[in-house]
Write a structure and sequence with these properties.
heterodimer, A: alpha/beta, Rossmann fold, Helicase, Ruva Protein, domain 3, 4 domains, six-stranded mixed beta sheet, five-stranded parallel beta sheet, 15 strands, B: alpha/beta
Chain lengths: 563, 344
C-alpha cells in the first residue's frame, strides 16, 4: 500500500480530521470497511474529534418521524400531555449510518436533502461484501471522502486521536482562508480529466483544501492543500486515468458525449494543472480504477459516483412502514401499528359512545396493514443464445423484446436483466435494471456467432436469480435458444456432456422454484429445447418466427399465466 | 423541515441550465402550464434551482393565519369558515418539499393528535398539500416516490382539491400547486400518468465547458465564504427577474394566440404522435407565457420552437426501437412541420 505512495489508513485519518474541521461543508465520509479493529478505531476517534457537534447513529430503517420529529406517541400517552420528539435533524448533527450499502434509495434521497440543507453531516459505513453492493450514489456524491479500508492490515491501522486543539483552531481560522482563482480552476480541470462529471466533486474538493489549509495553520490555500484534497476527494471518484491514452470507445466517461472529451483535449493545452497535483492524484488512484472502467460499461455508472460504481435499487424484502388500509383477506394487519393509531382517539371516542363495552375502541380508520417492499418486484432474467446456430436475426429480435418488455414493465415495477451466451462463455450484458436508458446503452453492442455454451448461460442466469432472491425479488427466467448445446460447463466441445450440463442446471433452476419460459428459437420446433423446458419445469413456447413484439406479447401472457 | 440556510443560492447566479430556468420562470408566469420535471445527472444543480425559486417568486396575498393560503376574505376553506378572516397579508409563494418518506397523513393532513389528547377536540391539521396551495410542491427523486403517494398526487392534481375523511370529519380544501419533480433516470422511470402531469420537462446535465464549470465553483465558493458581498448583486438580478415575471403576468391575457399558431401546435403534436390534448394545450400556454415574458404581442413560431422540446419530449409515445432520443425526435418534427425556413 505504502509503496504506491497512498496509505488508506492515513487517508482515513486525514478525512476524519478534515471532517472535524468543517463537518457540514464537507458532508462527511463514506467508509467502506468490514467490521473489525480498523473500523472500530476509526469510529472511536470520531465523536471526540467532532465535539461539540453531536454524533448520532441511525439505522437504515430510520423513519421520517425520527429524522424530522413529531409527536412521541408512547411518551404522550404515558404523560397524558403531548410530548414532542424534536427529531434528529432539529439541530446540526453528524449521523452515522452503519450498513449504508443497504440504505434504500428513499433513505438516500432523504439524507441527501438533509445534507443539501446543511442540516447534517454523514458517515456512511459501507460493509458491502460484493462489489455490486455499495452505498447509493445519491449519498456518495454528496460526501467529500470515499475511503476503502478493505484489505488493510490491522498492524497498519494503529489507534489514533485527533488533536482537538488543532481542530478547534482550524475551525476558527476557516472563515479567513483564501483561495486563489487558479486553484479553483485546477481542481475543476482535474475533476474533468478524471472523468468526474458531478460538480459537487470540485466544490467538495475546494472546501477540503480550505479545511486542510486551516488545519495547517495558514490562511492561503497552498499547492500542498490542493494536492491533499485532490488525492482524498477527486482520486477515489476517478473513472478515467488522466494522461493515459485510453481511447474514447472503451472509456465510458460519465455521460459521455464525444464532443466533451474533444473539448477537454482542447483545454488540456491551455489549463494544465500543476504536475504536482496530477502526480498526487495518480498516486492515490484506486488500484482497481481500470477494472472499474471495464465494469462501468455494464454498470453504466453515471456522473462519477466513484466507488459507488454499483448502485442497489430499493428492492429488498424488508418490511415497510405499515399504512392505512382495509382488511380484504389478503393483507395482514399490523396489530401494534393499529393499536398505536387507535390509542390517541380513545378519550374522544369514549365521549361519543359512552356506553361502549369494548376496552379499546378501534375504528376502520385505524387499521394498519403490513407491507413488504418485495411485493411487486419481479426480475425477468433474459438468457439469450447468441451463438451461430441461433440465427443472428434472433438476437436483434431478443434485444427488441427486452426493450419493449422493459418499456411496458417499468409501470409494473419489473426489473430486467440480460445474459448472452456464445463461444465458450456467458456474459451478463445488463445487470438487473428498470431503466430504459441503461438498457439501450447495454444492448446496442451485443455481438453474435460462435458455439452454444448453454450450460454457462444457465449458470450465469442462476447467479442472477439467486442474487435477486436474496434481495427479496422474485426472479423469472426467459431462455431464448434452440437448445442445441455444444459446449459443456468446463468449456469442452462435447455435445452430449454439454446437453447433460444444461439439463442439470435446468433442474437446479426448477428446484429453486424459478418460474421459467423456454422460447424455442429454431426454425422448426425441436426436441432439445423441449427437453430443456421439461428439466426447467418451464413453459415451452415454440416461436419460429418471433419478432420483437410477438415475443414480448408471448412472454407477457405466459408470465401472467404463471403469476 | 429544518432549514438552517436562511439565504438560498440566488436563482440568477445559477450558471447555465437555461432550459430549466426558463421552464420554472414560465410556470411562474402561468401556473396553468403545469409542473416542471427536471431529469438529469447528479450534481448538476437541479435542487439548487428549485430551492432558489422561493426567493425569486413574487409574494402572494393570503388571509392572515390561514394555513390553506386562502386568497380572499370571502374565501371558503376549513380555517376561514371557523375563523372569519380579518386581514390579508403578503407571504412568500410557498415552495414545499415533499420528502420521499413522507406518510400519507403528512401529505394530505390528518387529525391533530395533540388537540385530541389535550382538549378532546377533533381538529384537522393541514398537510403539505395545503401548504403548497398556490405555490410549488417539490419532489426530489420523484421517480422513487411510492406508488400510493403518486396515486394520491395525481388525484389531487387532477381535481385541484384535497378531500380527507377521518374520525367522521370530512375536510375539503383547495390544493392547486405547480408540481416540480427532479430525478435521475438511471434509477428508474416515471409512471406515464405522472409524467403526463408535468407540463414541461427538461433534461439537465452538468456544463461540459471547463470555464463554465469553473464559474460554478467560483460562485458557489463566494456564496459559501462571503455571502454579504456575493448575494446583493444577485438578489438585485433576482428582483429584476421578479419584475419581469410580474409584468409578463399582466401582459399574458393580451398576448394573441392566432389560429395559425394553434394549428401549428396541433400539427406538431400530430407529427409526434403524442396522445391527448394536454400536449397541445401546454405547448400553447408555454409559448404564450414566453411571448409575454419577451414582450411580444402574439405567439409566433419562434416561441413555439423554443418551448416545444420542453413541452413535448416527455409525451412521446415510447418507441424502444427508435434509437434517437426524444429531444431529437421533437427537433425532427419541428423541421418537418415548420420546414427549414426560419421566420424573419
Amino acid at each position: 500500500m505504502t509503496d504506491r505512495g497512498y496509505d488508506p489508513w492515513r487517508a482515513a485519518k486525514s478525512a476524519l480530521t478534515l471532517v472535524a474541521v468543517d463537518p457540514i461543508g464537507l458532508g462527511g465520509v463514506w467508509l467502506r470497511a468490514q467490521a473489525g479493529p480498523a473500523r472500530d478505531r476509526w469510529r472511536a476517534a470520531l465523536a471526540p474529534a467532532l465535539a461539540p457537534l453531536p454524533v448520532r447513529r441511525i439505522a437504515t430503517d430510520v423513519s421520517e418521524e425520527q429524522l424530522s420529529g413529531g409527536l412521541d406517541l408512547a411518551a404522550t400517552l404515558a404523560a397524558g400531555r403531548p410530548v414532542r420528539d424534536k427529531g434528529l435533524l432539529a439541530e446540526p448533527v453528524l449521523l452515522v449510518l452503519p450498513m449504508a450499502e443497504r440504505a434504500s434509495a428513499q433513505l438516500a434521497a432523504r439524507l441527501g436533502m438533509a445534507l443539501d440543507d446543511d442540516a447534517a453531516a454523514l458517515v456512511a459505513l459501507d460493509e458491502g461484501a460484493a462489489t455490486d453492493e455499495a452505498a447509493p450514489s445519491a449519498l456518495a456524491d454528496r460526501l467529500a471522502f470515499q475511503i476503502d479500508l478493505d484489505g488493510l492490515r490491522h498492524v497498519d491501522a494503529l489507534p489514533f486521536t485527533v488533536d482537538a486543539e488543532a481542530v478547534s483552531a482550524a475551525r476558527d481560522r476557516l472563515p479567513d482562508v483564501k483561495v486563489a482563482d487558479d486553484a479553483m480552476k485546477d481542481l475543476t480541470v482535474i475533476a474533468v480529466r478524471l472523468g468526474v462529471d458531478s460538480l459537487r466533486a470540485p466544490i467538495l474538493a475546494l472546501r477540503t483544501a480550505k479545511a486542510a489549509c486551516a488545519l495547517a495553520g495558514r490562511t492561503d490555500v497552498s499547492e500542498e492543500d490542493l494536492a491533499l484534497s485532490a488525492q482524498l476527494v477527486l482520486a477515489p471518484r476517478a473513472l478515467v486515468v488522466p494522461d493515459e491514452d485510453v481511447g474514447d470507445d472503451d472509456t465510458p466517461a460519465p455521460d459521455t458525449p464525444e464532443e466533451n472529451s474533444a473539448e477537454t483535449d482542447d483545454q488540456r493545452s491551455q489549463d494544465i494543472p500543476s504536475e504536482i497535483l496530477l502526480d498526487a492524484v495518480k498516486s492515490a488512484l484506486p488500484p482497481d480504477v481500470l477494472d472499474r472502467l471495464s465494469h462501468a460499461s455494464t454498470r453504466a455508472n453515471q456522473s462519477g459516483a466513484g466507488h459507488g460504481a454499483s448502485r442497489r435499487s430499493a428492492q429488498r424484502g424488508r418490511p415497510l412502514p405499515s399504512r392505512r388500509g382495509r382488511l380484504d383477506g389478503r393483507s395482514r394487519i399490523d396489530l401494534t401499528a393499529t393499536l398505536r393509531a387507535a390509542a390517541p382517539w380513545q378519550p374522544l371516542r369514549r365521549q361519543e359512545t359512552p356506553n361502549a363495552a369494548q376496552r379499546v375502541l378501534v375504528r376502520g380508520d385505524d387499521i394498519r396493514l403490513r407491507r413488504r417492499e418485495d411485493r411487486t418486484d419481479r426480475l425477468l432474467v433474459f438468457a439469450v443464445d447468441a451463438s451461430g446456430s441461433t440465427a443472428l436475426a434472433r438476437l436483434a429480435e431478443a434485444k427488441g423484446a427486452v426493450e419493449i418488455l422493459l418499456a411496458n414493465a417499468y409501470a409494473k415495477r419489473d426489473h430486467v436483466a440480460l445474459i448472452a451466451f456464445r463461444g465458450d462463455t456467458a456474459e451478463t450484458l445488463l445487470p438487473p435494471t428498470r431503466s430504459l436508458t441503461r438498457a439501450k446503452r447495454c444492448l446496442s453492442g451485443l455481438p453474435g456467432g460462435g458455439a452454444t455454451p448453454l450450460a454457462a448461460g444457465l449458470q450465469a442466469a442462476l447467479e442472477q436469480t439467486e442474487t435477486a432472491r436474496r434481495r427479496g425479488m422474485s426472479p423469472s427466467l426467459i431462455l431464448l435458444t434452440d437448445g442445441r448445446a455444444n459446449i459443456a460447463l468446463d468449456g469442452t466441445a462435447d455435445r452430449s456432456k454439454a446437453g447433460e450440463d444444461a439439463q442439470r442446471l435446468g433442474r437446479v433452476h426448477a428446484a429453486n422454484g424459478t418460474s421459467s419460459i423456454v422460447i424455442d428459437a429454431s426454425r422448426r420446433p425441436q426436441a432439445p429445447a423441449r427437453d430443456l423446458a421439461a428439466s426447467l419445469d418451464a413453459e415451452y413456447l415454440p416461436l419460429p418466427r418471433a419478432d420483437a413484439r410477438g415475443l414480448s406479447a408471448a412472454v407477457t401472457s405466459a408470465m401472467s399465466r404463471s403469476a | 423541515m429544518s432549514r438552517t440556510a436562511p439565504q438560498p443560492f440566488p436563482f440568477s447566479a445559477i450558471v447555465g441550465q437555461d432550459e430549466m430556468k426558463r421552464a420554472l420562470v414560465l410556470t411562474a408566469i402561468d401556473p396553468s402550464i403545469g409542473g416542471v420535471l427536471a431529469f438529469g445527472d447528479r450534481g448538476a444543480g437541479k435542487s439548487t434551482a428549485v430551492r432558489a425559486l422561493a426567493a425569486l417568486l413574487p409574494p402572494i396575498q393570503a388571509v392572515e393565519g390561514c394555513p390553506y393560503n386562502t386568497a380572499t376574505l370571502d374565501g371558503d376553506c376549513p380555517h376561514c369558515r371557523e375563523h372569519p378572516p380579518q386581514t390579508l397579508v403578503e407571504r412568500p409563494t410557498p415552495v414545499v418539499d415533499l420528502p420521499l418518506g413522507a406518510t400519507e397523513d403528512r401529505v394530505v393532513g390528518a387529525l391533530d393528535i395533540e388537540r385530541a389528547l389535550t382538549r378532546g377536540e377533533k381538529a384537522f391539521e393541514p398537510g403539505l398539500l395545503a401548504r403548497a396551495h398556490r405555490g410549488y410542491l417539490y419532489i426530489d427523486e420523484v421517480n422513487l416516490l411510492e406508488d400510493h403517494l403518486v396515486d394520491l398526487l395525481l388525484d389531487v392534481a387532477a381535481s385541484g382539491e384535497n378531500v380527507v375523511e377521518r374520525e367522521g370529519l370530512s375536510i375539503r380544501h383547495a390544493a392547486k400547486f405547480v408540481l416540480v419533480g427532479s430525478g435521475n433516470p438511471e434509477e428508474g422511470e416515471l409512471r406515464p400518468q405522472l409524467l403526463d402531469r408535468f407540463g414541461l420537462s427538461v433534461e439537465v446535465s452538468s456544463p461540459k465547458d471547463v470555464s463554465e464549470r469553473v464559474e460554478v465553483i467560483r460562485r458557489r465558493d463566494a456564496y459559501d465564504t462571503d455571502p454579504e458581498t456575493f448575494l446583493p448583486p444577485w438578489r438585485a438580478a433576482d428582483a429584476e427577474l421578479r419584475q419581469s415575471i410580474l409584468a409578463a403576468r399582466t401582459r399574458l391575457t393580451n398576448v394573441a394566440v392566432e389560429d395559425a399558431a394553434l394549428e401549428d401546435c396541433a400539427r406538431l403534436c400530430l407529427a409526434l404522435g403524442s396522445d391527448g390534448l394536454r400536449g397541445e394545450l401546454t405547448l400553447m400556454r408555454a409559448a404564450r407565457a414566453l411571448a409575454a415574458f419577451e414582450g411580444k404581442a402574439k405567439v409566433q413560431r419562434a416561441e413555439l420552437r423554443a418551448v416545444a422540446p420542453s413541452a413535448l419530449r416527455h409525451r412521446l409515445r415510447r418507441d424502444p426501437l427508435d434509437e434517437a432520443g426524444s429531444s431529437a425526435r421533437v427537433g425532427r418534427a419541428l423541421e418537418e412541420v415548420f420546414g427549414e425556413a426560419r421566420e424573419t
